[in-house]
Amino acid sequence: MNITETSTDGLKREFQVVVSAKDIEEKVNGKLEELRRTVQLPGFRPGKVPVTVIKQRYQGAVLSEVLEDAISDSSRQVLSERGLRVALQPKIEVEKYEEKGDLTYKMAVELLPDVEPGDFTSIELEKPVAEVTDEAVEEALSRLASSHSTQAPVTEDRPAETGDIAVIDFAGTVDGEALPGMDGKDYPLELGAGRFVPGFEEQLVGAKVGEHRTVNVTFPEDYPHERLKGAATVFEVDVKELRKNVPAEVNDELAKEFGMESLDKMREAIRDRIKGEYDGMSRLRVKRQLLDKLAEAYSFDVPPGMVDIEFEGIWSRLQEELKNGTAGEDAGKSEDELKAEYRAIAERRVRLGLLLSEVGRRNDIQVTQDEVNRALINEARRFPGQERQVFEFFKQNQQALDNLRAPIFEDKVVDHILDQAKVSEKTVSVEELSKDEDEAGDESAAA
User: Fold this and answer.
1) Which one, of 388, 280, 304, lies nearest residue 91 by Cα?
2) CB-CB contact of 243 with 154 (8 Å)
3) Cβ–Cβ < 8 Å for 447, 407
4) Can you name the residues that pair with 189 across neighbouring β-strands?
5) Which of 221, 269, 383, 432 has minimal Cβ neighbours within 10 Å of its Cβ?
6) pLDDT for 366-417, tens place per residue?
7) Which strands make up the sheet holding 12-19, listed edge to edge?
8) Mind listing the pLDDT tens digit for each residue in 266-297?
9) Domains located in the chain, CATH noted
10) Beta 124-129 vs 422-427: how paired, if at all?
């Protein structure tokens, strides 16, 4: 085998590899001989099939297999002999091959950069933390009580208010035509819940029991029923009854409905849950600070192909957001602006991902099977009733399993760095902590 390095450009390398005709012929003959000893053909005893017959039947397939193996084996040998760590699969282009001649091919590779992590003890970070107040616990208790509310008739003589349940009869028409599904009897409608066409519930606020009202609304342009898209509609509505939601009493009985021994135990559990939420937000903030500091401190070339792949993923998601009208400020930018902005983000993510990967490699940070299993269970819980299908999907899809493992590895590496960094705490309000989290956006280095 003859190897010539034909191009060196940053992390890109190109080689011309020549596999001799002699090597190819020897491997073809070896495989044909193996077939001759093992193949069974009608009219011949095992092991007695003539070589000419074997060549006639199998030479083309054997040659194709030998050439494929020759490229695979020789390309690995090139990388191994030179100690090259590739970022992506090598690109192979066969330049020349004629029967009984040499095989010449070109191999283009992108290499992983040499990354020197350095000392993380000099990194200074400020971790925002928020205290769990009694008020927050009581508010959570009130929400739980409201979730266990019951309905009771409104006994006082008053008009309907937002939050009331109005029991109504209604019938709607479009241009005087009654359409299926536009009427109902004894329908309990919570005013302000936004379950009917926009504007419908608001026009019933202030109505009294026994009152008849004519409600005029216009259906949204994206309404799924073709006939009602953007249609001006008139509803005739009779208010038959008013009800109100009565929250459950906050006491030991409520606690027992949630599986707690007592109200005090329930308060403790709520406090722990809120603290866990605050701790999660705090960690996201300090992780973002760390990644920002690492991005500022480390500057090295990254494989263009990895940046292209990362950018394509970002760009695809952005196109969906632009299409759905959820792109926010990005909707007002030109395509060139967006591409420049998001290619820089893609490069940052690749660089941080390579840095964290090298830190993990040098410190033998591993993701255990138990950690993967827990992540898999959490993923399956997102799809109630389809857990088995989720497990089967990941069992058969190594790429999906790797995607599940990647954020676990990243978080373990981040924790390793945070253990070395100087992290001080700053007490902030919950509003400040939540605002910081919102502004942080995507905290992942490689997502």
Assistant:
1) 304
2) yes
3) yes
4) 166
5) 221
6) 999 999 999 999 999 999 999 999 999 999 999 999 999 999 999 999 999 9
7) 2-9, 12-19, 103-110, 91-97
8) 999 999 999 999 999 999 999 999 999 999 99
9) 2-110 (3.30.70.1050), 150-246 (3.10.50.40), 262-440 (1.10.3120.10)
10) parallel
Of 400, 312, 398, 316, whose CA–CA distance to 349 is shortest? 312
Number of neighbours of residue 316 by Cβ within 10 angstroms:
9
Task: Taking the CA atoms of 289, 431, 447 and 405 in sequence, report the sign of the dihedral they define.
Answer: positive
Structure tokens that stand for 87 in this block: 């970022």
Instruction: Quote the tokens at residue 53.
Output: 């017959």
- Which residues are registered as beta bridge partners of 101? none
pTM of the model: 0.74
Residue type for position 33:
E
